[in-house]
Write a structure and sequence with these properties.
Elements (H helix, E strand, L loop, with lengths): L1 E6 L7 H12 L5 E4 L19 H11 L3 E5 L9 H10 L12 E7 L7 H14 L2 E2 L5 E3 L15 H21 L4
Parallel strand pairs: 1-2, 1-3, 3-4, 4-5, 4-6
Bound molecules: flavin mononucleotide (FMN).
The site of flavin mononucleotide (FMN) has 15 residues, from helix 1.
Length: 184
């Protein structure tokens, strides 16, 4: 199972990128998580879609197309997802009504330094997924609260409870993807 991961932070020492590294270490057998770069995508502009998507967008959409499922790792910025991730989702949503991302299973995780652990951002992300046609796991959630206490200096997630939740979420994503894709 190929899982394309999108990280909503461009920060070098990002907790959310640390969360991705943890997910890659804990991925269940049969799952392969790979990161899709979103930092080289131009700001979405309909003019750029004609005569065809720019090369960076074509490469991005190709990486999404080969995925069986998606994994979002998002910080919370101003009670929502960062603009860089929204920009990627806007590109993914095109062409309207016919995006290749439609029907793709997904899982959401997030880490933040505060007590909400990206809860509000993830709710917004779920709302955006409805429009794009992405199908997040209904009841698995990973909110890493007070991230400053749960990652070590190397950016590794050391909190065992959070690691268990990451593993559970990935197993649920595997099950959800099998179900939605009719693989069983
Ligand atoms: C512009 C900006 C807005 C933020 N807004 C929120 C917020 O609304 N809620 C929250 O819990 N943390 C907020 N934070 C703090 C982030 O949780 C914190 O910077 C976190 O480490 C970002 O994730 P990263 O480590 O993956 O970059 C904000 C940070 C920035 C830079």
């Amino acid at each position: 199972m190929e899982v394309a991961a999108l990280v909503g932070s461009l920060r070098r020492q990002s907790y959310n990128r640390g969360l991705l590294r943890t997910a890659m270490l804990l991925q269940p057998e049969g799952m392969h998580i790979y990161e899709v770069q979103i930092d080289d995508l131009p700001f979405f502009n309909e003019d750029l879609e004609r005569p065809s998507d720019p090369p960076a967008v074509r490469a991005f959409k190709g990486e999404i197309d080969r995925a069986d499922a998606l994994l979002f790792l998002t910080p919370e910025y101003s009670y929502s997802i960062p603009g860089v991730l929204k920009n990627a989702l806007d590109w993914m949503s095109r062409p309207p009504g016919h995006s290749n991302a439609r029907g793709t299973p997904a899982a959401l995780m997030g880490a933040a330094i505060g007590r909400s652990g990206t809860m509000r951002a993830q709710l917004h992300l779920r709302q955006i997924c409805v429009q794009v046609g992405i199908a997040p796991t209904p009841d698995s959630e990973v909110f890493v609260t007070f991230a400053g206490d749960k990652f070590n200096a190397l950016g590794e997630l050391t909190d065992q409870t959070s690691r268990d939740l990451v593993r559970d979420l990935l197993e649920d994503l595997m099950d959800w993807t099998h179900r939605l894709r009719g693989w069983r």
